[in-house]
Amino acid sequence: MTDETIEKPVLEPTGALSVETVLSVKHWNEHLFSFRITRPASFRFRSGEFIMIGLKGDNGKPLLRAYSIASPAWDEEIEFLSIKVQDGPLTSKLQKIEPGDQIYLGRKPTGTLVTDALLPGKRLFMLSTGTGLAPFLSLPRDPDVYEFYEQVVVVHSVRRVSDLAFRDEMEGKWSEDPLVSEQAPNQFHYVPTVTREPFDGHTARIDKLVESGALFEGIPGAAKFDPETDRIMMCGSMEMIKQFGAYFEEQGFTEGSNAAPGQFVIERAFVG
Questions:
Q1: Which three-class secondary structure state does DSSP give residue 230?
Q2: For the whole model, what pTM was predicted?
């Protein structure tokens, strides 16, 4: 036992940043964690958007990076999903946060992984790898999404079973979420795939699931992507986004934005 305590830095809000309190932290495995923070009363965002968050850097200035918001727009708290990078400027510090710690939160959320950037359709497919799942935890918990689309599909590709963050919630079709618990059982579909470990479900990469038609099993509609009816969001590895961006364009899909809605969207802020 020791009387020594680690003194936590005190953060000061700025014109662009508020200071929030960490409410809870969950470590999914040795390189993946999620956490919830307080939400300012004035903070508004669209499900699927991202925001700048951070801590005090070694130079005393805010050390920030963009994070997709994993909680829906109606939640009274804000949730994030993060990897742990041992030598990462921010994540090396962020992975050590505990309830009660302070964190910087940007005041202006933005992004293109929102329904406003897509044309009307029947099926919404959200393709993700790793922590690219984060915005697709927000959108399926937003009741408006079920008004816009007949089928709402989250595809999550990871290397290991323990990387399937929020698996129980999605397999349960968001039964604990009061605003979507009536629509989700009939409209929400969760398609996890694990590529480097044995798994009781899919074990191929997303492109192979599309080629074989396995991705569409149990989902009403055609066993292929159709630009007339299907709308796509993508978030995750550069490789996946580049591959599918080219694929969808070849299939006649047009990329959308907030200014000009289309048939598929990616988050350009993360891919450069």
A1: strand
A2: 0.94
